[in-house]
Structure prediction request, 627 residues.
Amino acid sequence: MSLKKIVLSSTILVLFLSCSTSRTNELKKNDIIVTKIDLVNIENDRVKIDINPGKFYSTNTSFFIPKVVPGTYSADNYGQYIEDFRAYDYNGKQLKVSSKNINVWFIEDAKNLDRITYYVNDTYDTETEKVEPVFSPAGTNIDQNKNFVLNLHGFVGYFEGLQEIPYELQISSPEQLRPSTSLTKVSNGNENGLDTFKGARYFDIIDNPIMYSPPNSTTFDVNGISVSISVYSPNNKYSANDFRPSMEKMMNAQKEFLGSINGTSKYNILLYLSEVNKEDATGFGALEHHTSTLAVLPEQMSLQDLEETLIDLVSHEFFHIVTPLNVHSKEIQYFSFNEPIMSKHLWMYEGTTEYFANLFQIQQNLIDEKDFLDRISEKMNNSALYDDDMSFTAMSENVLSTPYKENYGNVYEKGALISMCLDILLRDLSDGEYGVLWLMKELSLKYDHDTPFEDDEIIKEITKMTYPQIGAFFADHVVGNTPIDYEEILKIVGLEILGIDTETSYFFDGEEPYIDVRPGDENSIFIREGIVLNSFFHDLGAQSGDTIKSIDGIPISLESIGPIIGQSFQWRPNRDIEMVVERSQKEINLQGQVGIPLVKVTQIVPLERVTEKQLNLKNLWLKGAQL
Prediction:
């Protein structure tokens, strides 16, 4: 799995923690963990879970709800949404249970354990209340008789040491709702409204989200892959067929780009459209799984904007069938949800995936050269906001901890740029024959879903497969902390980098705002972090993270900032302004003239003079073919 946010946030890579107190070796082959989920009888906006694990042979056991799930790069502690946890023996009496931490319950006298029950609260209702809410595509929704988003890591847990035991899900649901999922069905809803699904192990359960909603789906074929789109639109504004033409065109182009690489025979796109003016999902983006993507976007967006955003999200997520869903390390293959150990190779899992999501579009003529180079330029601009002296492998390995987690978003920026550089270097060193797509195809022949690589060995392996210069690039710029000279790399394909001042508005750069509202407090307006500020804020002395307390004596709130933004379009450069901001719990008075708001951006343009070799290499890079 991996995740991509619209305003950033990709692959939690963790190591399986085996437990010696399990009954695994004593299980019969037909043992199965039966989990019942009741979506009909909702109690206080909670769903009841009933789990029958079969016979235990150990004296005690522990039950876990995940702390971390793949793709989120955060400790979301899904146990905080569990209530009224109980364990029962075969006579229906409660067994003694103690909570080891927010995600773990210790059950005594496990030999007599018959079943456990608990209630689950959803995450969508509480996103505006929490400082660090669960990202919506990794969250859960309980909207009785209307919609259920079952990211199953929020509903179903696992017993100590039993992650490899088969699961059966029995889900009771309202008759007007239909499930959309890639999870294997044992039976469809019958007269009792019961759907039964199975998974070979716990990972299969949490790797296949289910969305229950009124029927709204469509299916098409992409070169042997059956693709389904299912949409929940609370106000019936959009149907799945609205998105089919653009998705079908885009995914056919992706498959054409990948060629012989095959990762799945089916793929499900689950699109949840949120009503942002209510207690609803606010974290927009997508979370990818082996054979599906769960995307959350606002229903208020226009169809054109939704299509463009969905293309960006799904194109990235679908390419994860290459890596890490196919090519990955043991840190992903053997996976612990509560004691995460991270892989060093986000440059591959997220960087290469994001790079492919852009490269295929120019190679398949979905965008032109200028569009592609503008996207690369934007990644250079965005990458400059992160610590360029930080080792990328060190950041990946320590991504759950400060200061590394603050640099996670760079996997979509510098991570993609690393793959771009590798692509150009490989083309140059091989006289145009090889690139990064070739490299990933070769790796997929060695490593697959069931054959992981050693985390500390893969760069050495790539160097053996390619050239010493590729190993040197990794040593200096991926493992090492030397910033990449992008201009030197781009010269190989006849391009150069220019720094250009472009005009913005005072509070927006196009549609991208410089300010935002703090979650849970509409009277707290702050200057966004992780973006390049324009000269208006910079020259005043404002900083990212500052809370704007007043402008020209007017106290700032969500209500008052709107008219000021509207007036700003009429401001003249010599207009005086006074802004009071709060920084580190101190109020600071900023004064100056508004000026002309400018932001310096990187732009990639052709060199004035190029050689035939440079032109040929650029064509191979961007089109994958000889002149």
